[in-house]
From TrEMBL:
Annotated compartments: Cytoplasm
Signal peptide limits: none
Protein biosynthesis found in the keyword field: no
Enzyme class: transferase
Identification of the protein by name: Probable transaldolase
Active site (record annotation): K83 (schiff-base intermediate with substrate)
Name of encoding gene: fsa
Pathway(s) where this gene product acts: Carbohydrate degradation; pentose phosphate pathway; D-glyceraldehyde 3-phosphate and beta-D-fructose 6-phosphate from D-ribose 5-phosphate and D-xylulose 5-phosphate (non-oxidative stage): step 2/3
Length: 217
């Protein structure tokens, strides 16, 4: 499973990219607004750091406006993926954009049918929102698992990005459910590799090694 970073914080992207762990980046209007910087500048900075797909979202409601926005975004950098919301107008836009060879990530997916429709429209990626679905008592992992099954059975090339990831459990379960990608917020990334027993074990190793070095042999 690939790891994307769900952030527009350039420092965070640099840090995780330096570890070789950032296969891509996803943003949305909320994430961009949080940084308080110019949209294009932030996206371009990120595209320079990460070679993989970088999602930038359109904000229009109508298909023709989304297409116009998407065409503008797509030329910013070769790794831009245009994020389009899962609406009737969004699907119309994805159909046209995919025929033009523009990569899309259909966002705000909460059901298998939404994901299937997006894939049929030619979406490069679909983003089921795990945390937000579980918040209202849904079974987000079932959506991911079933969607993967449907994509495999019918030979869709569309990749699943598990988004709205809130915990390590979400990351592990997304991997088990066959998600192609998990997009993870920066603060959760550190928790992926750290464990108190690892730290404790290391302290003990060091202590024992120092004692060994100080022993007369
Ligand atoms: O990229 C969209 C997404 O991951 C949102 O997450 O935590 O706002 O539900 P959250």
């Amino acid at each position: 499973m690939k790891f994307f970073l769900d952030t527009a914080n350039v420092e965070e992207v640099k840090r995780i990219a330096d570890l070789g762990l950032a296969d891509g980046v996803t943003t949305n209007p909320t994430i961009i607004a949080k940084e308080g910087k110019n949209f294009k500048e932030v996206i371009l900075e990120i595209c320079n750091i990460v070679k993989g797909p970088v999602s930038a979202e359109v904000t229009s409601d109508k298909a023709e406006d989304m297409i116009k926005e998407a065409m503008e975004l797509a030329v910013w950098a070769p790794n831009i993926v245009v994020k389009i919301p899962m609406t009737e107008q969004g699907i119309k836009a994805v159909n046209i954009l995919s025929k033009k060879g523009i990569k899309t990530n259909v966002t705000l997916i909460f059901s298998v049918t939404q994901g299937l429709i997006a894939a049929k429209a030619g979406a490069t990626f679909v983003s089921p929102f795990l945390g937000r679905l579980d918040d209202i008592g849904g079974d987000s992992l079932k959506v991911v698992r079933d969607l993967r099954k449907v994509f495999d059975v019918y030979g869709f090339k569309t990749e699943i990005i598990s988004a709205s990831i809130r915990s390590l459990k979400h990351v592990e379960e997304a991997a088990l459910a066959g998600s192609h990608i998990a997009t993870i917020p920066g603060n959760l990334f550190d928790k992926l590799w750290s464990h108190p027993l690892t730290d404790k074990g290391l302290v003990q190793f060091k202590k024992d090694w120092d004692a060994y070095l100080n022993t007369e042999r």
